[in-house]
Write a structure and sequence with these properties.
single chain; alpha+beta; four-stranded mixed beta sheet; 4 strands; 13% strand
Length: 171
């Protein structure tokens, strides 16, 4: 009889442990979920801060406003087309280079165009590879390019080639 009691007590203890294990399972899952949400949130914040680098070119992101500014200032346009799938490191490598930044800002109205959001503008220039760069006279008639990805050391010489083709002095 005592064996039966101890068996049933062991069974009761095992059942209680099983219940405790089951009740701790949702807690573990909720902590795991919270950790994942926390990591995603801070990952998103890190991406936002990395892409908001103040050392990059001061872009105009509205195509029509940029063209209007170029006409008002009688300054050529530098168009940079990209798509969101391009790693931001690739774009930052070019646009955060201080020499490139100063060169472009001194000579052009820089317009940054996300072709994912503005496919009609990309279509006007027959853009199919990204990033793609064009320069354009302020009157908006003729565009020169495309100039694709170039490492920072090669970017300004390639851009000067487009400027020569356009008949624009490179200094």
């Amino acid at each position: 009889m005592k064996e039966k009691e101890s068996d049933s007590n062991n069974h009761d203890v095992s059942a209680e442990k099983g219940l405790q294990d089951m009740s701790s399972q949702p807690k573990k899952n909720s902590y795991r979920t919270l950790r994942i949400i926390f990591l995603l949130f801070f990952g998103f914040i890190a991406v936002v801060f990395l892409t908001q680098n103040s050392d990059t070119i001061n872009w105009i992101e509205d195509y029509h406003a940029g063209v209007e500014t170029a006409k008002q200032q009688n300054k050529p346009i530098f168009l940079a087309f990209y798509k969101s799938y391009i790693p931001t490191k690739t774009l930052e490598e070019i646009y955060s280079d201080q020499n490139i930044k100063e060169f472009i800002e001194a000579r052009f109205i820089p317009i940054l165009i996300d072709a994912s959001k503005n496919p009609e503008i990309a279509k006007l220039y027959n853009v199919s590879l990204y990033p793609a760069h064009y320069i354009k006279r302020p009157d908006g008639n003729e565009a020169f390019g495309p100039l694709g990805y170039r490492p920072p050391l090669d970017f300004i010489p390639a851009l000067k080639g487009l400027m020569t083709e356009m008949g624009m002095p490179d200094e």
